[in-house]
Amino acid sequence: MITIHDYKTLVREVLGRDLEANLAQRDGVSHQDDDILMIVAGPGSGKTSVLVLRALRHVLVDDILPEHLFITTFTRKAAKELRTRWLDWGTLLLSTLRNNRNLRDAINRIDLNRCRIDTLDSLAQQALTENKMPGEVAPIVAEGSASKLLLKRTSFSTIYDANKDVLDHLFTRYTFEGKPPWNRGEALAVAKMLCERLIQDRVNLESFGQMSPAYQKVVDILEGYRNYLQSTNLFDFAVLELRFLERLQDESLKEWVNGIKALLIDEYQDTNPLQEAIYFNIISTSSPFVTVVGDDDQSMYRFRGGSVELFTQFANRCAAVTGKRTKRIDMVANYRSSGEIVNFYNSHIRGDAGFIPTRISPAKPEVVSERGVLGTPILGMFRENTVELAESLASWLQQLLANRRILLNNNGERFELCLSHEGALGDFVLLAHSIEEAKYNRFNGNAEQRFAGHFRSAMINRGLQIFNPRGRSLRTISSVQQLLGLLLLCLDPEHTRTGAAYPTNEAKFFLSEWRAAATTLINQNPTPSDNGGLGRFVAQWQEVALGVPNGNFPEDWPALELIFKLITWIPGFQNDPEHQVWLEAITRTVSSAGMASPYGMQIFKSGVHRDRSRESFIRDALLPIAENEVDVDEDIMPSVPRNRLQLMTIHQAKGLEFPLVIVDVGSHFTGNWAKQRFLRFPEEPSNIVKMEDDIEPHLGTPLRSYRSPIDRTFDDLTRLYYVAYSRPQSVLMLIGCESCLAYGRGKAQDKGIIPSIALGWARDRTWPWRQPFRGRRPPVRVEPPMLLI
DNA sequence: CTCGATTGAGTTTTT
DNA sequence: CTCAATCGAG
Asked: Keywords for this entry (predicted)?
């Protein structure tokens, strides 16, 4: 429709982006031939922009209609972001071009909304839905706890019970701490992970099963589960992708695939072998324009089957299967962070020679900050323990917000950190490996406050708020306990309906806590208290539950409606943003439990269904929460309120940026504790790496050039903190326990020295931050490359 | 230096 | 509850 030259001019004039100013971005958008374009893009280098501009270029320059474009990403959040950018920029470009009379008709044929921008799973689901085989119905996807429940309800339970010893022995290899699973729930989690892995890595099940009787039992569990899924037309994510691949291979999707004229894949470093096979099949079949974007240094989904090797060896692997050549472009100009920050994370990977062999070869050059040195050093706050750290951090933030500036003293050189006019807590984020506020101790039943919990209190005491809906397990939040307890009181007044589901002791404990919380609430007679209030409402439900005839009551009642009625008595659920997230998690659990339950989460009034529908609800919807199997998904919040500081895990922060980022590098590392070494300086391969190695001999296509298990475990930790350190725009602050910076006499294994990848240690146990001492005596000085406050 | 008592630790992520 | 690091006594 227009030339590439005109396109670049259009982008400059309408979107204000000068592609000639950045050679990598220009080449990324202009590249045109049959070779696959591989963009290796460092953090903050504008890869999303290039991806969208390249996609729009396919429409305007290469005359591909949006419906023939496919853009895949790794998370729903990223897909949403891409779609927004695509629509914003696309609409602007199209409306400008519409002014040109000659182009108007062609432009009017373009419907931007028809472009498919989604995760690969959701594209697979669409493809299978749009191309049902004769007599087939649309696939239903069971996610998270629902698919776990299905596994438990099909083959897992019988096979596990009959082979407990042999399976426990095998599972011990993959549990945390290398102990036998401490209950069925943990065994189920391991089995689920193995099953997913077997599918995602396209493992040869026959040879895998032959390794040992225990492995054969795992294969049996998987087979039973898959048969059940097939008979009910249910899918989990792995099975969905596998079905998609099978349909691609038997050519029953051929017409659909030939509709793909351009394929753009984001976050390729997190792709797994099954997804790779899908992509290669599409590429071979319809020979589209292909763009692959990723960063080997930011790969962090090994636990999900993501293999960075698929990215670093992409050119060879792709050529071997599809015959296509690959052209590579590196993007290392960073538009996000200050020079100080970029320098800090560059040295984070440069300082560890052991990291180099895992990177793409040849490695991309070091990231260069386009913003330059801005004068704010990296900040570090280290205190004696979590409580003091939480207090110090909260009061530092309070000062900064109240005065809009804060004085910092850098070795006698004083300078001010200023907050912009509209700066607020919403511009800050605290990243940590774990954001859990309290830990339920399964040995003594206590809830122990952790750093995030102390921090919440410290903030609240100063009138500041945080946003951390994932910080507490649903089952321990008091208003959630009230709600779930009310449900129990309404549906099971005599405590008779939980036994059949064999709850664990832990679950029983929480069920009784909930009942107690609900009883207390009823006794407080909360508003609205007219017509007998909450007490009368619950009493009515209890009568129906016990079979007392009640003509006014409908024959069946959706459990969700009962929930929405009950929350009117619980104030938190009315307007608090964290409560909205929790409520969503509860309703999601209820509706997905409906998939596995014959009652579909309806509560019946009479006959045998009166008891059974209630039992089913308690077993399938409430027990998973009591057993802590339900995850909170805060992505449903369109935006976090501006007056709250967000807490996130590093994984969740991937792809995001914030003006000020606080990274917890060890708030609770008071000593060189063996049980936390995996968080900072592993001694043993992680269990996920072990699983990879056990499966490796049974892969269809060999995967990795040999790299030792312990090195891969270190690599993951290095990448994790690389991602964390590359999030901030202007200020990066590291927080931790004082003892992390100590370096006394003695060997590194003892004397309170705490080696930590996040704090600049190399895996050979050297520490570049440690200054060699001059003169005769230790102690040795440690000079962190940051300003300690 | 050795032994036994005391103390403090004990996962995270997504489709 | 279990494991490992540290501490204090002998």
From this structure: ATP-binding, Helicase, Hydrolase, Isomerase, Nucleotide-binding
A42 is in an annotated binding site: yes
Nearest nucleic acid nucleotide to A442, CA to C1' distance: C1
Provide the CA A671 to C1' C7 distance, Å, integer.
Answer: 15
Confidence at A507, pLDDT banded by 50, 70, 90: confident
- pLDDT tens digits for range A22-68: 888 888 888 888 899 999 999 999 999 999 999 999 999 999 999 99
d(CA A670, CA A753): 10
Q: What percent of chain A has pLDDT over 70?
A: 96
Footprint of strand B on the protein (CB under 7 A): A 74-77, 119-122, 143-144, 175-177, 237-238, 300-301, 303-304, 433-436, 439, 441, 443, 470, 631, 649, 651-652, 668, 670-671, 673, 675-676, 678-679, 686-688
Straight-line distance from CA A702 to C1' B4, in Å?
52
Distance, Å, A683 CA → C10 C1': 35
Residue pair A748/A765 in contact (Cβ under 8 Å)? The answer is yes
pLDDT digits (tens, 9 = 90+) for A583-642: 988 998 888 888 777 787 889 888 888 888 998 899 888 988 988 888 787 666 667 888
Strand B positions closer than 7 A to protein CB? 8-15
In residues, how long is chain A?
789
The pTM of this model reads: 0.91
